[in-house]
UniProtKB/TrEMBL annotation:
UniProt keyword list: Cell inner membrane, Cell membrane, Iron, Membrane, Metal-binding, Repeat, TPR repeat, Transmembrane, Transmembrane helix
Subcellular compartments: Cell inner membrane
Family recorded in the similarity comment: Belongs to the LapB family.
UniProt protein name: Lipopolysaccharide assembly protein B
Lineage: Bacteria, Pseudomonadati, Pseudomonadota, Betaproteobacteria, Burkholderiales
Ligand binding (Fe cation): 351, 354, 365, 368
Gene: lapB
Length: 382
């Protein structure tokens, strides 16, 4: 049977017309989607700038649904979820990005970094640690190591914290010598609580040789020696602290005075404190320690007068008044109680980074977690 070529004459034009119509339809649909997607995106951006995060999230979800392959919208949506505190949805968004096979290496690393931030904000430190370790050979390596260091400090994993600090020094992030000294002091304190005082003592003695500018190392060594009955060794450690980091002497002035009274070192300590007072700004702790070494109350009160001559101080005035008697006993008691109450806030220490105040001195601020952010002087002396 012969083939009828007339069908080709009719079929080809019809197929061409149908193809052209289909392409026009697809083109109009693509244009409509492209127009709809930017509208949702810009609406979400406007709502975000207006601090309407819930409505902005809805707009970005609409934009993602219209164009599920757009990675930037996914990143924006995941970050919004995190800022809003919806960490579970943020994790799902970023895990979806990591599972996509069309993303380049740069976007995959960016998604991994965002996922680690989700876990950190959610307080899932073990999952955050695992996510951060995958960024060690990426452009986010420095940020990842710093975040890992924070995790190890929060979990009190001092050994891993020390290793991470060494790696940060290696890649040129500055010196972590004093922070590593804190880690060793924490480890020594743990050994001491466990009864391993010999190991703790050896660790601290090695530490002061390696990091002589660590005030905490000298103080920890002095406390441990004193607890073992080695008062002479404890005083030697505090004298070394005065030579290496004299600005921290006020922190141990009271201990110096008390321990010196147990042996023949009283005169040496008093001379050390007087020399320090001549070379530095007035310190209430140093003045109080010197007063403790005086043989009678009159000489002690004279030291507070000398302090007041150099610098007005309500606390020093209260210490001086504590040894004086005036008026009726009941009136005197009320006046001294009022002064003591007014002086309490002035005796605190204040973090230079966040302003957190505390009665005791902290090597790491409980508020902002900064190390060595507390000046070794009282609030009144700032």
């Amino acid at each position: 049977m012969a083939f009828d070529f007339s069908w080709l004459l009719w079929g080809l034009p019809i197929a061409f017309v149908l193809g052209w119509l289909a392409s026009r339809y697809d083109l109009r649909q693509w244009r409509a989607e492209r127009q709809q997607n930017p509208k949702a995106y810009f609406r979400g951006l406007d709502l975000l700038l207006s601090e309407q995060q819930d409505q902005a999230i809805d707009a970005f979800i609409e934009a993602v649904q219209n164009d599920p392959e757009t990675s930037e919208l996914h990143f924006a949506l995941g970050n919004l979820f995190r800022r809003r505190g919806d960490y579970e949805r943020a994790v799902r968004v970023h895990e979806h990005l990591l599972q996509r096979g069309d993303l380049g290496q740069k976007d995959l690393q960016r998604a991994q970094h965002a996922l680690a931030q989700d876990f950190l904000k959610a307080g899932l430190l073990d999952r955050a640690e695992a996510a951060l370790r995958k960024l060690e050979d990426s452009p986010y390596a420095t940020e990842a190591l710093l975040a890992l260091l924070s995790i190890y400090e929060r979990s009190r994993d001092w050994e891993h914290a020390a290793e991470t600090a060494v790696r940060l020094e290696t890649i040129g992030c500055g010196s972590f010598e004093l922070r590593q000294a804190h880690y060793r002091c924490e480890q020594a304190d743990l050994l001491r609580k466990q009864g391993s005082t010999v190991e703790a003592l050896a660790m601290l003695e090695a530490l002061v040789q390696r990091s002589p500018k660590s005030a905490r190392a000298w103080i920890s060594l002095a406390d441990l020696r004193q607890s073992l009955g080695d008062t002479q060794g404890a005083l030697q450690a505090l004298h070394q602290l005065a030579a290496q980091v004299p600005q921290h002497l006020p922190l141990v002035a009271h201990s110096l005075a008390q321990w010196s009274k147990l042996g023949p070192q009283g005169q040496d300590t008093e001379q050390l404190l007087r020399d320090w007072r001549e070379q530095h700004s007035p310190s209430l702790d140093v003045t109080q320690a010197l007063a403790l070494l005086q043989p009678d109350g009159a000489q002690a009160r004279a030291l507070y007068i000398e302090h007041l001559q150099r610098e007005p101080s309500l606390v020093a005035a209260a210490f001086w008044l504590a040894g004086e008697h005036f008026g009726q006993p009941e009136e005197e008691k009320r006046v001294k109680q009022a002064l003591e109450r007014a002086c309490e806030p002035l005796k605190r220490y204040r973090c230079a980074a966040c302003g957190f105040e505390a009665r005791q001195y902290f090597w790491q601020c409980p508020g902002c977690q900064s190390w060595d952010s507390y000046p070794p002087i009282r609030v009144e002396e700032l």
